[in-house]
Design goal:
This protein is α+β, with helices and mostly antiparallel strands. It contains 2 helices and 3 strands; from the N terminus they run βααββ. It has a 3-stranded antiparallel beta sheet, with helices on one face. The longest helix is centred in the middle third of the chain and has 18 residues.
């Protein structure tokens, strides 16, 4: 994923994701999926619409046993786990 702009760690905040992060998280997630599919031809990407992703994220965030963390700089999300 060499096309991603590096973000110095000192400018990032690690925090729990919120439903408001869904649009930016969707774009990051799509890039990761596409990257993995390019590396492994066995991976076939199923289409996932932004609203489907947002609904799934909200379900995950509502589970007490799940955690989604984001790295955010002042203007955008830089990553997630």
């Amino acid at each position: 994923m060499a096309s991603l702009r590096p973000v110095p760690l000192t400018t990032c905040e690690i925090r729990p994701a919120t439903p408001a992060d869904a649009p930016a998280l969707y774009l990051l997630w799509q890039r990761v999926r596409e990257h993995n599919a390019r590396l492994d031809p066995r991976i076939v990407l199923a289409p996932v619409a932004p609203d489907q992703f947002a609904a799934a994220l909200e379900r995950q965030l509502g589970r007490g046993s799940a955690t989604v963390l984001v790295a955010a700089d002042r203007t955008r999300l830089a990553g997630f786990v």
